[in-house]
Amino acid sequence: MTEAPRAALPATITYPTAERLDLVEDLHGHAVADPYRALEDPADPRTAAWSAEQDALARSWLDAMPGRDALGARLAELMRTGSVGTPVWRAGRAFYTRRDPDQDHPVLYVRVDGVERVLVDVSALDPTGRTTLDRWTPSAEGTRLAYQVSVGGDEHSLLHVLDVDTGELLDGPIDRCRYSPVGWLPGGEEFFYVRRVDPALVPEDERQFHRRVWRHRVGAPASDDVNVHGDGLDHTYYYGLSLSEDGRWLLVNGAPGTVRRDSVWIADLHGDAELRPVVLAEDGVQCAAWVAPDGRLYLRTSLDAPRFRLCVADPAAPTEWTELVAEDADSVLDAVTWLDGHLVLLRTRHAVSELHLHSPTTGAHVGEVPMPGTGSLHGLSTVDALTPADRDVLWFGWSDFTTPMSVYRYSLSEGRTELESAAPGTVALPELSTQQVSYRSADGTVVRMFVVSGEQHPDLPRPTLLTGYGGFAVGRGPGYSATTLAWVEAGGVWAHASLRGGDEEGEEWHRAGMRERKQNVFDDFHAAAERLIRDGWTTPQQLSITGGSNGGLLVGAALTQRPELYAAVVCSAPLLDMVRYEKFLLGRLWAEEYGSASVPEELGWLLAYSPYHQVRPGVEYPSVLFTVFESDSRVDPNHARKMCAALQHASSSDPTKHPVLLRRETEVGHAGRSVSRSVGLAVDQLTFLAWATGLDL
Q: Is the Cβ–Cβ distance between 457 and 479 less than 8 Å?
């Protein structure tokens, strides 16, 4: 096989030795080997020593990769664009986040009468950069703010309340509030929120679960909170909540784990305040419900509509629905908001955002909101009942491949969309060509893929970076990415495939890539790679792949199923041992997505593709870099440890040309991180892939 040209690195490589157990279990008639189970325990001295050796090995290679300094400088420059968030309006006050060019984290501001003030700056609270702002919600009057922070990437949010005018801390920290929604009651003295129960009351392995909806009075001890909802329900339920603008109607939604089956309850707080069901998870549909300013209950649902439709009801008779806007055959209904007597519907058409205007009376389509281009919308916002002006204005966040997160303003009366707040930094961007292409997967299904390059058409095969996700109904459209821009600017091609398992084409698209149909996702990915090669964009020796979390499972399966198709892999925070994934952290919540090893038939599905169990000795595997985060509270790093040891033992590739490395980080988790740490991670990942595919950085 012809190798991509690459710079010379250390002439030899010796992998750390991991104890290889002769451990084979009989699971439902399957002989399942698990030679590296000892690496599941991070406290085991052998695991700690092995991990330290892997750290040293990874750094000896990654630090020697050519182009690191130049790439780091360019990535930092591309991230100096900063970002600005969509404003949330309360009584004429605008609340929003902004990250300026030299800031590591976004800062939360309030603007009152044209004057901007800082409300929460996590960098000031914690100069080490370990603290992240997880969520924030102002009261209806805009005088109080509930906000949540977590430390070291653990996502165990601490809730605080401050006085917006004085900055005085009024309440908190209240612990166990992981990304809790907050529903303020009028007056700002009380709110509803979601919190896990006292860990002393539940088994140790269930302490991340057992959530309840609580009613809290500001300044009172959390131990006095009233348990509103959750007793007697599945202990894995995640809850959301909202209140109507007048504070009368409380809506609570919930779903067991990450499944796409919703329960919705509604309560009249001016009546008996009892939460009554609107729809239940056992009905097997998705449903988001809210009471709009016109006093009606609106329901965005997948019932009889996998691409979703909009229904209405009287809140006092919430189960008597009338269809208002039917399902569209070629787009997915993602969100709805009220705008001065109109409904604004956010749709995505093949992962590209659109906004449409409809009549709330008849549901008829009455217009389309002009969009800035072909991109992705992030957040819709209109003024609240207490804001005196701008009642016909819609604000929305926007991004595409060359536009950092910015805010646009649409005026209903003027029929015009204009830039409200650009990203605060200015950066020279490379000339790009972006396109969306279609291709057929192994079973003939049409799949779409974004391709970003310096040329409109292939001029010669180039180092290419292909990515995707393909799970949990998570989709991704065009968006600004410093790593994408840096890769393409250096002469590479970047591609993102909209795989089954996501939501780009609705719930049927999601279901076509889950459980016994998971192989469809991998087939879609392989077909994307083959399309890039067939069109002349790249070759197998120049093709790299990357994915994180469920996307880490994707690339783990790709490298074990088609090792000859890919030159290099970055596998980040991955799921890889699909036999034991349910035993760690949040894994038990994902059985409806993947299947459970406790069920004989479903174990067969999992073993068919489980990357750890599909590693075979004597196979020439590509170069692989695992990146994991020790404070990850979702996916246990033991997946990457075990897979790394298995590949290092099995691969017959020359390790000086196709190394298998494990990069660890501490005090950072699965989600938010500082810009500086993002740059550091991206430098290691991109220089590794560039070296392996011959891209000159």
A: no
